[in-house]
Design brief:
126 residues; alpha/beta; Transcription Regulator spoIIAA; five-stranded mixed beta sheet; 6 helices; 46% helix
Amino acid sequence: MSTHLRISTSHADGATVVHVGGEVDLASAPELEAAVAAAFELAPRGAEDARVGHELVLDLRGVTFLAAAGLAELLKGARLAGDRGLRVRVIASDGVLRAVEAAAVAPATLGLVPATAWRAARASEI
């Protein structure tokens, strides 16, 4: 197990939230893959309409480095979420935003939300 990646999962307001911190590189990307797969298992099951509105949030505000292997796992997770009828949002640190931009991935593909915009949105809900 990698010593430089921290992952935990929580649930709030109809969402399964995977919190990730540290470096997501070739060595730690399988841990991210496993956490996202586990989050899918925690999502509501049953009739397709039971999952409408359920959301998978990948909170990457604590990620300091995102390698191509990590970005590949995020893209795979976004695709799987879409296939399962789940909405996905990725709350991105500046480092994640730079990696996505450098890879020329459209932010909408990942449901990307910059951390600053996420904080502003949450503050307005309080």
